[in-house]
Amino acid sequence: MTDLHHHGDAEATPGLVDLAVNVRAGAPPAWLRAVLHAAVEDSAAYPSQDAARAAVAAAHGRPEDEVLLTAGAAETFTLLARALAPRHAVVVHPSFTEPEAALRAAGHAVHRHLLAPPSYALTAPDDAADLVVLGNPTNPTSVLHPADAGAALCRPGRVTVVDEAFADTVPGEPGSLAGRRDLPGLLVVRSLTKTWGLAGLRVGYALGPPDLVATLAAAQPHWPVSTPALAALVACTSERARAEAEAVAVELTAHRAALLALLPPGVTVVGEPRSSYVLLGVPEADRVRRELRGRGWAVRRGDTFPGLAPDHLRVAVRDPDTSAAFAAALTAILESP
């Protein structure tokens, strides 16, 4: 049985170089830390979402009633499972496993639509689906589906959820549907976790039709997003922050190319990676992963993702020096008898 609750943080033992968690390495930038510290001073009062909702709406050119603020993007999947009653829910895999886990925990049957290797290109799920969940870019394959392909999933009577937690890791966000208000039933899920290194803050949002947003909001408790998280939403959706995120995405593209160029013979790159991680085919991947741990490196196992095999490892993209050291360790393991 696939462990849908296994994530990269389970691999990232303190003391190891963390390539298992696909979040920006290190602390958030200094200016964002200053915003968070100031917000702590304002935390005696109950949080108000007004400024953050307005900031997110303005950033995406949408009315405020189309914005749902959440305690991390993952909360959206729990809200969907609690608030909706899908007759035929489909999750496109391989992908982030929390949407399926949330649906199953709420008692919903889940149908898996498996994309085919080596490209993992998007194909149409069952026409009967009234709830479809897609990641774009997709974790763990790092594949970016064309925006038109994602849009084609939308239709009346269906809720189409596109998890764009990694959208801002791709320069220009070419696959994003966050600005599309014309597509029926589309809910786009976004996160501040990846680019800004805020996994511990739990902050994200969703964009969709007002009636769907209101339905999901009704399933939330009062004050679901903390004052520091709301301050982060305002700061990270500013024009300055969005320009910085774009620069980080451009730098990431170069860092990913450097990593791929250093991989030893026998290691295959799955698909065409476009995000902050790559999926690798590695012979005897479980043994290699354990030996990497012994040498001080944490990588993410792939066999807990539906649709992947035991010979897959997901590796986060870091700076070229870190990638060179990792590639050297991987080469030594593969060359050892």
Q: What does this protein look like?
A:
The protein has 337 residues and is of the alpha/beta class. It has two domains: 114 residues, Aspartate Aminotransferase, domain 1 (Alpha-Beta Complex); 209 residues, Type I PLP-dependent aspartate aminotransferase-like (Major domain) (Aspartate Aminotransferase, domain 2), CATH 3.40.640. It contains eleven helices and 13 strands. The protein has a seven-stranded mixed beta sheet with strand order 2-8-7-6-5-3-4, with helices on both faces. A hairpin with a 7-residue loop joins strand 9 and strand 10.
Give a quick summary of the entry.
With 337 residues, the chain is of the alpha/beta class. It has helices at residues 30-41, 50-60, 73-83, 98-105, 147-151, 193-196, 210-218, 227-236, 239-262, 285-294, 320-335; strands at 17-18, 67-70, 89-93, 110-114, 131-135, 159-163, 186-191, 204-207, 268-269, 277-281, 297-298, 300-301, 312-316.
SSE inventory with pairings:
Layout lengths: L16 E2 L11 H12 L8 H11 L6 E4 L2 H11 L5 E5 L4 H8 L4 E5 L16 E5 L11 H5 L7 E5 L22 E6 L1 H4 L7 E4 L2 H9 L8 H10 L2 H24 L5 E2 L7 E5 L3 H10 L2 E2 L1 E2 L10 E5 L3 H16 L2
Helix pairs in contact: 1-8, 2-8, 3-4, 3-7, 9-11
